[in-house]
Amino acid sequence: MNAKVWLVGAGPGDPELLTLKAVRALHEADVVLIDDLVNPAVLEHCPSARVITVGKRGGCRSTPQDFIHRLMLRYARQGKCVVRLKGGDPCIFGRGGEEALWLRERGVEVELVNGITAGLAGATNCDIPLTLRGVSRGVTLVTAHTQDDSSLNWRALAEGGTTLVVYMGVAKLEEIRQQLLEAGMAADMPVAMIENASLPGQRECRSSLACMHDDARAFVLKSPAILVIGAVAATAVEAALLASA
Ligand code: SAH
Fold first, then answer.
1. How many angstroms separate the alpha carbon of residue 233 from the centre of ligand 1?
2. CATH fit for domain 4-113, picks 3.30.1490.120, 3.40.140.10, 3.40.50.2300, 3.40.1010.10
3. If DSSP codes are grouped into helix, strand and coil, which group holds residue 7?
4. In this structure, what DSSP letter does residue 45 have?
5. Residues with Cβ within 6 A of ligand 1?
6. pLDDT single digits (tens) 4-55
7. Are 42 and 13 in contact (CB under 8 A)?
8. pTM, whole model, 2 decimals?
């Protein structure tokens, strides 16, 4: 295979949720650069590759993005097959777009490989259908965390009527709650908070928009977690009743 960089999604944690294409890329890799949200169990597919951890968890000591770019470039220019393995999907809050652009601008061949993003896996594992006929006709994936502190259009989110899936929201629960209430979302809108989706330590906390901050505190909700906000986050039975109403 030609030297290139594969930007690969490792899925949400459960190694069985890895795609066949991700497994093929791992088999062919000489060097694998992994994020700290990647379950190390997936590395069984690249036993002879050199594995480098380049974690970038918010708030923790992390490897500067520029260093990661240069590392990928260096190995690619040495003719190595490089796999950059990211949690979930590389292009959902994963900088896959930036990394692909940066490498292609320098003449490196890049292939992006989807992974199952945490928001989808978390909802499914808790039996929450993100779309449901008569209840939710769409899904919006958002992050509460921005580099420049710019604000989301909360009114559009509240009025859009789609299920909201919020990434990186644990530290911002009170702000999310307040903004959505102010934007007119119903106080009793169901919310599911899902920690460690698809991993053996998965935990879920069901709540409502008004109570989610207090309930999360009592539950000791920890990152990584996603929030599902919308009628579909009611228990399966209630959602089925809503759909048939
Ligand atoms: N590219 C990743 C998202 C990276 S942003 C993806 O597609 O899933 C990091 C955020 O993703 C975390 O703060 C959390 O909100 C979410 N996340 C990642 N893995 C998770 C998991 N196993 N369970 C719950 N949330 C997770």
1. 18
2. 3.40.1010.10
3. strand
4. G
5. 12-13, 37, 86-89, 92-94, 117-118, 122, 167-168, 194, 196-199, 223-226
6. 899 999 999 999 999 999 999 999 999 999 998 899 999 999 999 999 999 7
7. no
8. 0.93
